Amino acid sequence: MTPLLTVENLRVRYPTRTGMIEAVRGVSFMLGRERLGIVGESGSGKSQTGRAIMGLTPSHGIVTAERLNFSGIDLLSISARERRSLRGKRIAMVLQDPKYSLDPVMTIGKQITETLRTHEKVSKAEARDRALAMLEAVQIRDPKRVYDLHPHEVSGGMGQRAMIAMMLIAGPELLIADEPTSALDVTVQLDVLRIMDRLVSERGMGLIFVSHDLRLVSSFCDRVIVMYAGKIVEELKASDLNNAQHPYTRGLLNCMPVIGENRHPLPVLDRKPEWAA
Ligand SMILES: Nc1ncnc2c1ncn2[C@@H]1O[C@H](COP(=O)(O)OP(=O)(O)O)[C@@H](O)[C@H]1O
Ligand SMILES: [Mg+2]
Question: SMART domains this protein is in (predicted)?
C-alpha cells in the first residue's frame, strides 16, 4: 500500500546577506492514516517542515527533497495551480492563532461555506447545512448563532474550533496541525485536542501534530518525531517515550514540570554542539 505521505531528505533553505540559513536539514519520514507528532523547541524547523509539505514556503525559500509524495502525487513536480487545488481539499493545515487564519471581515459561516464551495460543487443551501453540521462537530453549541458572527465576536477557543471546522469541511485526507492549541488555555486545549482526535479516527485522516510540548504530543499521537536544529534526532512510538535514547529528548522530558512534583529550579537543557552536527 502506498503511504499517505512520504518525505525523503527534505531541505528548506533561505538565502540571506550573510549566507544560507538551513531551516530544515534533511528530514525523512513516512505517514499512514495515523497520528504523528513532531516536537522540538522553538526554531527547530517544525513549522518549516509542515509548510513545505503544504507548499506554503515563502517565495524566497528553497525547498528540495529526494521525494515528497502525497498519496501517489509527486508534490515537487506538480504545478502551483495543482498544488493550490490540493490545499484545503485534500491537505489542510491548522495554525496556532486563528486571528491570522480567519478573515476578520467575513462571518464565520461564510468563510466555511466558501471554503467548501471552492472545492466542491454544492448549492448554497447544502453548503450552509454542511457548515452548520461541521460547527456542531467541533462542539460549538449554538452553530446557527455562531454562523453569523465575525471572528472578533467569538472567544479564542471558539475561533480555533471555527478554524478547525473550516479546515475539515472539505474532508482532507491529511491534516497538519501546527501548535493548534498553544494560544488557548489548558482546558480549552484539551477540548480542541479531543475534537481533532475524534475527527481523525472517525474520518481515517492522517494527522501531523506539531508542538513544543513533548508530553502533550505523546499522550495524543501514535508516533513522535523529535527535531533539533532542522534535523530529526529521534523517532519513537509515543508509548515508548520513557525509553527515549537521545539526550535532547531526555532533556525535553526532564525540563517539563510534572504536576505534584516540586522541583526548584527546573533543570535547564544543556545543549551539546554535536546534536546539531
Ligand atoms: N522566512 C524565513 N526566512 C529566513 N529564515 C527563516 C524563515 N522562516 C523560518 N526561518 C528559519 O527557520 C528556522 C526554523 O523555523 P520554524 O520551522 O518556524 O521553527 P519551529 O516551528 O520549530 O519553531 C528558524 O530558526 C529560522 O531561522
Ligand atoms: Mg513553529
Answer: AAA
